[in-house]
Write a structure and sequence with these properties.
Shape: globular
Order of helices and strands: HHHHHHHHHH
Largest sheet: none
Number of helices: 10
Strand content: under 5%
Distance between the termini: 45 Å
Length: 285
């Protein structure tokens, strides 16, 4: 029933509607886990992953339909501007969906202050930002904690962030190739990690969420845009391979267009890494 809120065809005409869909999906996912699994002795240890799993279950029908729809358009265009014209609306719809995830996750994380809901996400955040003291970082960054850092130089932090983001991009591509819409798992996971980071930066105060959102969205927009572009490229490539066969002219055109999308995604990942290390700290100390 929920997958009919905004069909893929309508989302391309009015991408901003997916923001509200993302709010609903993420809110339901987090609240369901909080209400039904937080008190479970076993499942509560994996609450962070369960939140993402529910978000993926809600989003899969939309993701599948939009990839299938975009593959048909990709057979008719070529060149960078042609590819962007064909897929720009779909990428915007996915970005709005992702933005809705982040807002809902950050809001409920701050309201509920349940340390279990984003336990895996906080661990991932600490692995990236404080690799030398992960356990201490997790303890400090749980609701009520403070902040620490684990890098001596900006260049070391840039290399670590770039490696992590490129790895996420590769996983997104592999997931989308193997399972088409399956890339939504990587993207929902990243939305939850960013939301956990916003909660940390805002010290779990509702009034500070807009500042935390600005802190992570400056570099987050190009980074997440790169992941969605990668997911779309892998998805349309896989669908075209199944529909047209490897030697078909339409498949070759789709392959060329997917390559353009991947190159654009790599550029955005590098740009996001530079912004995160060298620009964002200047604006938020």
């Amino acid at each position: 029933m929920l997958e009919r809120l905004v069909p893929a065809s309508r989302a391309e005409k009015k991408p901003w509607k997916m923001f509200f869909v993302g709010l609903i999906y993420a809110s339901l996912s987090l609240l369901l886990v909080h209400w039904f699994f937080s008190n479970d002795a076993v499942l509560s240890k994996h609450a962070g992953l369960m939140v993402v799993t529910f978000s993926v279950m809600f989003s899969l029908p939309f993701m599948y339909n939009i990839i299938k729809q975009e593959e048909k358009q990709d057979e008719k265009v070529s060149g960078f501007f042609g590819v962007w014209t064909a897929h720009g609306d779909a990428i915007q719809a996915l970005m709005w969906l992702f933005f809705g995830f982040i807002i809902a996750f950050a809001f409920w994380n701050t309201i509920l202050k349940d340390p279990l809901l984003f336990n895996a996400q906080i661990g991932t955040y600490c692995l990236i930002n404080s690799p030398g003291n992960i356990e201490g970082c997790v303890s400090l960054y749980s609701p009520g904690g403070s902040s620490i850092t684990g890098y001596a130089t900006k260049s070391a932090r840039f290399v670590s962030i770039l490696e992590n983001n490129l790895l996420v991009m590769i996983f997104t591509l592999v997931f989308s190739l193997l399972f088409g819409a399956g890339a939504i798992f990587i993207l929902a996971w990243n939305a939850s990690v960013i939301s956990a980071a916003i909660g940390i930066f805002a010290r779990y105060q509702l009034s500070q969420i807009p500042l935390g959102l600005a802190r992570y969205m400056i570099h987050g927009l190009p980074e997440i845009g790169a992941y969605f572009i990668t997911a779309l490229a892998g998805g349309i490539f896989g669908v075209s391979a199944l529909r047209n066969g490897m030697g078909n002219k339409k498949f070759l055109k789709v392959t060329e267009n997917a390559s353009i999308l991947i190159l654009l995604a790599i550029f955005l990942v590098v740009l996001a890494g530079i912004m995160e290390v060298y620009l964002t700290p200047l604006l938020f100390r």
